[in-house]
Design a protein that fits this description.
By secondary structure, the chain is α+β, with helices and mostly antiparallel strands. It is about 25% helix and about 25% strand.
């Protein structure tokens, strides 16, 4: 992936590629010094640095969102039909039943922890970033969703697990105020209100999952790890 004239960095500093003679390349650092480096090793270092920068971006985004208005509410959102891949879509929208909106008073700025009912794991942290809107033809709702009076909120995904085994199992977190939470989590038509402290515990665990998945050098794109069920 390295190109002559391309700018990259390693643990020493930023450099420009001057010449390539695989498997090595000659580079020039910002201070004018040069070095001959192994391309395979430098590729791994470069990828790790990019991953670290992405992690910092995730944490910065999450930190900014902790500076919230007094009215922010926190929910666990059990879901059946929502598969993990949908949370990777830009400008994802949370589908809310009209009756749920009035019952739980969901609004812009509220934060959600997604729970997969089928897999019994917490797997994503999200923030409602915009105002409620009625669906349009572009939202491509199913006939059943349209009949159910669905409304939409834009949602920004802060952190998420890509694999079931990396997500947080239901019995990995306990709530004193919800001794029967596992029963409550079986209902996909609900939003379970939790405290900010409870939310942050789960959010931190899922952020760590994101860090671990990004940093996992042994992860293979063609592995046979279990995916989230539909």
């Amino acid at each position: 992936m390295f190109e002559v004239g391309g700018k990259y960095s390693n643990r020493i500093g930023k450099y420009t590629v001057v010449e390539i003679n695989e498997p090595k390349m000659t580079v020039e650092y910002e201070d004018g010094s040069t070095a001959e480096l192994n391309m395979n090793i430098q590729l791994r270092i470069w990828e790790n640095i990019q991953a670290e920068e992405e992690i910092k971006s995730i944490r910065t985004s999450r930190t900014k969102r902790t500076i919230k208005s007094e009215g922010t509410k926190f929910f666990i959102r059990p879901v059946n039909s929502l598969v993990a891949e949908q949370l990777g879509v830009r400008a994802y929208k949370e589908h809310v039943l009209e009756k749920s909106l009035s019952k739980f008073n969901i609004s812009q700025g509220d934060r959600l922890i997604y729970f997969s009912i089928e897999n019994e794991v917490y797997y994503a942290v999200a923030t409602i970033t915009g105002k409620l809107a009625k669906p349009t033809a572009r939202d491509q709702l199913t006939e059943q969703q349209t009949d159910a009076s669905i409304l939409l909120f834009p949602v920004d995904v802060d952190a998420r697990a890509f694999k079931v085994e990396s997500a947080v199992p239901v019995d990995g977190v306990e709530y004193d105020s919800y001794p029967n939470i596992q029963e409550m989590l079986k209902n996909e038509d609900t939003y379970i209100p939790i405290t900010e402290d409870e939310f942050e515990v789960l959010a931190e665990l899922l952020t760590e999952v994101t860090v671990e998945e990004i940093d996992d050098d042994s992860e293979d794109d063609d592995d046979e790890d279990e995916d989230f069920e539909d």
